[in-house]
C-alpha cells in the first residue's frame, strides 16, 4: 500500500492506512486450525463395532462349550491319504522286484498268479511268505483333493457353463421378445413368464426327476449313452438365468434411442447389421451391472443342486459337517469360498466396465 504526500500533511489518514495495512498483514499470518476429521472417527467406530461383533460371537460360542478346531480345516482342501494294497488271492510270494521307483510283487497259488505294483518301497511282506486274501502287501501315500476344494471346483464349473448358456439363451430370447414376429414374441413371453414365475428348486426337481428320466429312458431304448445328473443341473440353471438375462437384454436394447436404428437403416444397413454393430454394443455397456448381479445370484443358486446328488460346495460342506462335527468352522469357510467366487466375478465385471468405457 502506497501513501502519497507527507505524513505530516495528513497524520490521521496515514495512521489509519498504516493500521489497516498492519491488520491485513497480521491476518495473513494467522493459520486456521484443522477441523476434526469426522470420516476418520466413523472409520474407527466401524472397526470397533466389527471387532465387538466378532468378540461377542466368540464369547457366545464359549458359553455353549464349543471347541474350535481350525487346525483341521486344511485337510478338507488337500490331504495325504494312505492307500493299502491287499492280496486278492491266497498263495506264496514268489517274487519281489524293483521297477524304477516302484516295487512289483508276484503272488502265486492254486495255479493262478497275481502281480501288484506298489509305488515306492513300502512292501509289508517278504519273498516266500504265505499271504491270504485281504492281507496287506504294501502301502503308499497319495495326495488327494479335499471335499471342500472338490465341491468348489464343481460349483465353479457348473456356474461357468450355466452362465455361458444363459447368455446365449437370454440374448436370443431378449431379441425375440422385441421382435415383430408374433411366434417369436409370444414364445419368448411364455418362456420368460413360466421360468420367472416358478421357484428354481421346483425347476431343478422337474429337470432331474421328470425330464431327466424321460430323456435317459429314450436314450436307453435307442442304445445310446446316459446323461449324468450334473448336466440336468446345468440345464436348469442356464434356462433359469436365461429368462432373467432376456429381460435385461430387452431393457438394455429399448433404452437406446430409436433414432440410432433409423440412422443406421438410412445408411443402408440391414436391421440385423444395425442391431449387431450399432445397438448391441451400446446396450452392452448399460446391461453389464445387472448382468453381473444376475450371474452372482446364479453362483449362489447353484447350492440348490445338492438336492439332486451333485456334490457342489454346499453339499460337500454338509457332508463334511456330518463326518467331522465342526459346523461353525466349515460353514464359515463355505461362506468365505462363495464370497471369493462372487467377489472375483464382480471385479471382472468392473474391469469390463472400465474397458468398455474407455473404448
UniProtKB/TrEMBL annotation:
The keyword Membrane applies. Keywords: Amino-acid transport, Cell membrane, Membrane, Transmembrane, Transmembrane helix, Transport. It is a multi-pass membrane protein. It is found in: Cell inner membrane; Cell membrane. Residues 152-349 form the ABC transmembrane type-1 domain. CDD domains: TM_PBP2. It comes from the Bacteria. The chain crosses the membrane at residues 40-60, 152-176, 188-210, 230-249, 330-352. The keyword Kinase does not apply. Part of the binding-protein-dependent transport system for glutamine; probably responsible for the translocation of the substrate across the membrane. Belongs to the binding-protein-dependent transport system permease family. HisMQ subfamily. This is ABC transporter permease.
Amino acid at each position: 500500500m502506497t501513501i502519497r504526500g507527507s505524513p505530516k500533511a495528513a497524520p490521521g489518514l496515514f495512521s489509519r492506512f498504516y493500521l489497516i495495512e498492519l491488520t491485513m498483514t497480521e491476518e495473513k499470518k494467522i493459520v486456521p486450525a484443522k477441523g476434526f476429521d469426522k470420516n476418520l472417527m466413523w472409520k474407527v467406530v466401524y472397526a470397533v463395532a466389527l471387532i465387538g461383533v466378532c468378540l461377542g460371537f466368540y464369547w457366545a460360542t464359549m458359553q455353549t462349550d464349543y471347541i474350535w478346531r481350525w487346525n483341521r480345516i486344511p485337510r478338507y482342501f488337500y490331504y495325504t491319504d494312505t492307500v493299502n494294497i491287499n492280496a486278492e488271492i491266497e498263495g506264496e510270494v514268489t517274487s519281489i522286484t524293483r521297477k524304477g521307483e516302484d516295487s512289483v510283487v508276484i503272488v502265486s497259488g492254486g495255479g493262478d498268479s497275481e502281480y501288484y505294483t506298489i509305488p515306492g518301497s513300502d512292501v509289508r511282506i517278504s519273498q516266500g511268505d504265505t499271504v491270504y486274501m485281504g492281507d496287506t502287501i504294501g502301502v503308499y501315500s497319495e495326495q488327494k483333493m479335499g471335499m471342500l476344494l472338490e465341491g468348489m471346483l464343481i460349483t465353479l464349473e457348473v456356474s461357468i457353463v450355466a452362465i455361458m448358456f444363459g447368455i446365449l439363451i437370454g440374448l436370443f430370447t431378449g431379441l425375440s421378445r422385441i421382435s415383430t414376429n408374433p411366434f417369436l414374441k409370444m414364445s419368448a413371453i411364455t418362456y420368460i413368464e413360466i421360468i420367472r414365475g416358478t421357484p428354481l428348486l421346483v425347476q431343478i426337481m422337474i429337470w432331474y426327476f421328470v425330464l431327466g428320466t424321460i430323456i435317459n429312458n429314450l436314450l436307453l431304448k435307442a442304445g445310446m449313452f446316459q446323461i449324468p445328473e450334473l448336466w440336468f443341473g446345468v440345464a436348469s440353471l442356464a434356462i433359469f438365468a436365461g429368462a432373467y438375462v432376456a429381460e435385461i437384454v430387452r431393457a438394455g436394447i429399448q433404452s437406446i434411442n430409436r433414432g440410432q436404428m433409423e440412422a443406421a437403416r438410412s445408411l443402408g444397413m440391414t436391421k440385423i447389421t444395425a442391431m449387431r454393430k450399432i445397438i448391441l454394443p451400446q446396450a452392452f455397456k448399460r446391461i453389464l451391472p445387472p448382468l453381473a448381479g444376475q450371474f452372482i445370484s446364479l453362483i449362489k443358486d447353484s447350492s440348490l443342486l445338492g438336492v439332486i446328488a451333485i456334490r457342489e460346495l454346499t453339499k460337500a460342506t454338509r457332508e463334511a459337517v456330518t463326518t467331522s462335527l465342526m459346523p461353525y468352522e466349515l460353514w464359515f469357510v463355505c461362506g468365505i469360498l462363495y464370497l471369493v467366487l462372487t467377489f472375483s466375478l464382480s471385479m471382472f465385471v468392473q474391469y469390463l466396465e472400465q474397458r468398455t468405457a474407455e473404448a
